[in-house]
TrEMBL record:
Domain Ricin B lectin positions: 59-144
InterPro entries associated with the record: Ricin_B-like_lectins (IPR035992), Ricin_B_lectin (IPR000772)
Gene3D superfamilies given in the database record: 2.80.10.50
Protein name: Ricin B lectin domain-containing protein
């Protein structure tokens, strides 16, 4: 297991780092330590199962630009090989990062501290290696753990002002968006 991932996270099969991993958790509690099951992951959309508007469109987590510090928002899911689609495909890696499939050097990052916004950043940036992500299958949550103090946060969005940027919420948040993510 890489030294950046806490020892409480189980070890992975040798090919998980190259193939990508799918993170899941069959726990009874809302946010216990997830189990990690290595499987081939070619890139997935992180889709909210909450309705966004009066249409039946699906909304995906999307980075707004392929530039460092770009924000994330929920946008209608795209198809094909468009640039918009490339901004919506993600892979969980063996170090707890969420990498963009088209631009694997770019990750969803958090700088730590009191700010709760997530930004696009360089995966290997030492200033942004304060956290790791897991996906909880049972609660449909994307969980960020602060590696300095083991505090957990949930990825979500304002469920009233839905088009605002994606941010972190406390692990016991009542915001329904924090438990609405599925992989497609």
């Amino acid at each position: 297991v890489p030294s950046s991932v806490p020892s409480s996270v189980p070890s992975l099969e040798p090919n998980a780092a190259t193939d990508g991993i799918l993170l899941g958790m069959p726990s009874a509690g809302p946010l216990s330590t997830p189990s990690i099951m290595p499987v081939l992951e070619k890139g997935v959309s992180l889709v909210s199962d909450l309705p966004f508007d009066s249409t039946s469109r699906l909304f995906c987590l999307q980075v707004m630009n392929f530039r460092v510090n770009s924000v994330f928002k929920m946008r209608p899911c795209a198809s094909g090989i468009s640039i918009q689609r490339q901004k919506q495909l993600w892979k969980f890696d063996s170090n707890g990062r969420i990498r963009n499939k088209a631009r694997p050097e770019l990750c969803i990052t958090w700088a730590g501290g009191r700010k709760k916004d997530v930004r696009l950043g360089m995966c290997d940036s030492s200033s942004r290696k304060v956290s790791y992500f897991v996906y909880d299958v049972a609660t449909k949550a994307i969980i960020l753990t602060n590696m300095n103090n083991d505090k957990k946060f949930l990825l979500g969005y304002d469920h009233v002002q839905k088009y605002n940027h994606i941010r972190l919420y406390g692990e016991h948040s009542l915001n329904p968006s924090t438990h609405s993510f599925t992989r497609m």
